[in-house]
Amino acid sequence: MAIDRGYGIATSSVIADSYDLDSLIANTEAAKAAALVAQTAAELAQTAAELAETNAETAETNAETAETNAETAETAAASSATTATTQAGLATTNGAAQVTLATAQVALATTQAGLATTNGAAQVTLATTQATNAASSATAAASSATTATTQASTATTQAGIATAKAVLTAADVVLTAADVVSAEADKVQTGLDRVATAADKVATNADVVLTAADVVSSAASASTATTQATNASTSASTATTQASAASTSATNAATSATSAATQATTATTQATAAAASATAAAASADSFDDTYLGAKASDPTLDNDGDALTAGDMYFNTTTDIMKVYDGAAWGNVALSEATVVSKTSATGSGVLPAGTTAQRDGTPSAGYLRFNTTDTSAEIYDGSGWAAVGGGNSTTEGLYEHAHTIAANYSITSGNNALTAGPITINTGVSVTVPTGSTWVIA
Question: Residues 104, 110, 116, 119: what is their CA dihedral angle, to the nearest 10 degrees?
Answer without folding.
Answer: -110
